[in-house]
TrEMBL record:
Residues annotated as transmembrane: none
Family matches, as InterPro entries: LysM, LysM_dom_sf, Lysozyme-like_dom_sf, Transglyc_AS, Transglycosylase_SLT_dom_1
Species, as recorded: Congregibacter brevis
Coiled-coil boundaries: none
Domain LysM positions: 336-379, 401-445
One Pfam family matching this protein: LysM
Family the entry assigns: Belongs to the transglycosylase Slt family.
Protein name: LysM peptidoglycan-binding domain-containing protein
Lineage: Bacteria, Pseudomonadati, Pseudomonadota, Gammaproteobacteria, Cellvibrionales
Length: 450
């Protein structure tokens, strides 16, 4: 036992010294960071993390990071680009603290899916690079979700995007499609995962053109040798840097967030369309928490088409599924379909169906009051809808304040920060749900209302 402890101590000191040396090399080679075209063989830099356990039984992983650590394959690679990427993360002292709640919600699912496909486990950490594990993240180029999938890529992959639902934001759908895409890219580049990752970031065509340029000049065609956009030259090294940090977190004095090696959510059948607020009430969870597991659900109620499931915390899954199975139709969203007649107006139709013009606009995705004879309107008929409307209009008695959207903000994060709901922000600001928040955009919030 004493020998094992001594070996552990020696190993950690050795790793720490090597990493300090490599950091110094990285700083010294800063001018070469964007142009270096080589990577040091793994065996010449750091011993495998598994070597520490040669004389000791591993046992089950102590947490999810331990499970990931045991499967890492890129953590021993090093060059100036990787060193710079590692320093990028190490300088963000609160990075892992900030991602802790997201990692606790989503990372287990990502690991499960990557393992099931026998892909490099580092792929499960790619959303840390892409979105810092924020499923509500929207880039300036409209890439969305954990995996930052562009609209055009989503259409190419056949992902659902409509008024009710955006698969790019959905935890399960986005992961399935992103991994399908990465697997196909790996095949296209003969199993070279670094090229596949570069293509995921900048496009397969761009990587292929870079390869052809190098071939025409008689140059190497590995990832490190290609002339690629600056973002892509930094993208892959950041994933490798995260691999190194997870592998040698103790030596680097990085405290990884507490993420249990257990699922955080379960998918349950709703038994039909239901308001998100009603589902949250039945589950006994906050609406914001329920939305954090279902970011792909864009509206006040679950999408009318799809697999009819929502994600909920594991602890409430069984009782909520039982409650939903016994829920009467009067507490669900039901619809009437009304064919517009000549001379109709939204005001007249709303009065006839004892509803409100604003509701008809929202559920039918209308921009104004113009309607055409012969078109069909969907009219919600639900008692719970009225309760949802009342909640969404809360704030008239609260304290009014302005808020300017900052880079990286999402409706979810703003709602969580000010203890309000996403629906409230949308209603207070008459937001177009089909458009995402932009940095500099002004919002009005009502805080402390009853």
């Amino acid at each position: 036992m004493e020998g094992s402890v001594l070996k552990t101590l020696i190993y950690r000191v050795t790793v720490a010294c090597l990493l300090l040396f490599l950091s110094a090399c990285s700083i010294q080679d800063t001018k070469q960071t964007e142009s270096t075209a080589s990577v040091t063989p793994a065996a010449e830099i750091l011993p495998p993390a598994s070597e520490l356990e040669d004389d000791m039984p591993l046992g089950p992983p102590v947490d999810l990071w331990d499970r990931i650590r045991r499967q890492l394959v890129m953590h021993t690679l090093h060059n100036a680009r990787i060193g710079a990427a590692r320093e990028h993360y190490l300088k963000q002292s609160r990075y892992f603290e900030l991602i802790e709640p997201r990692a606790a919600r989503y990372l287990y699912h990502l690991v499960e899916e990557v393992e099931a496909r026998d892909m490099p486990i580092e792929i499960a950490m790619l959303p840390l690079v892409e979105s810092a594990l924020n499923p509500f993240a929207i880039s300036n180029q409209s890439a969305a979700g954990l995996w930052q999938i562009m609209p055009g890529t989503a259409d190419y992959l056949g992902m659902r995007r409509d008024w009710w639902f955006d698969a790019r934001l959905d935890i399960r759908d986005s992961t399935t499609h992103a991994l399908d895409y990465l697997e196909s890219l790996s095949v296209d580049f003969d199993g070279d995962w670094l090229l596949a990752l570069a293509a995921y970031n900048s496009g397969k065509g761009r990587v292929n053109r870079a390869i052809k340029r190098n071939q025409s000049k008689g140059l190497p065609i590995d990832y490190w040798s290609l002339e690629l956009p600056r973002e892509t030259r930094r993208y892959v090294p950041r994933l490798i840097a995260l691999s190194t940090i997870v592998a040698f977190s103790e030596a680097l004095e990085v405290t990884l967030p507490d993420v249990p090696n257990t699922p955080s959510f379960a998918a349950i059948k709703t038994g039909g369309q239901i308001e998100m607020l009603r589902a949250a009430e039945l589950a006994g969870v906050d609406l914001i928490e329920l939305r954090s597991f279902n970011p792909g659900q864009l509206r006040w109620a679950t999408a009318p088409q799809g697999d009819g499931k929502i994600l909920v915390p594991v602890a409430v899954a069984d009782p909520l599924e039982r409650a939903l199975s016994n829920l009467p139709d009067s507490e669900r969203v039901t619809w009437q379909h009304y064919r517009i007649r000549r001379g109709d107006s939204l005001i007249r139709i709303a009065k006839n169906f004892d509803t409100q013009v604003g509701l008809l606009r929202e559920v039918n995705n209308l921009r104004g009051n113009l309607i055409r004879a012969g078109d069909t309107l969907m009219i919600p008929d639900s008692a719970a809808w009225q309760a949802s409307l009342a909640l969404s209009q809360r704030g008239s008695t609260g304290v009014r304040r302005g808020y300017t959207v900052r880079s990286g903000d999402s409706l979810y994060e703003i709602a969580e920060r000010f203890d309000i709901t996403i629906d409230e922000i949308i209603n207070w600001n008459d937001l177009d749900p089909d458009r995402y928040l932009q940095p500099g955009q002004s919002l009005t919030l009502f805080l402390g209302g009853d």
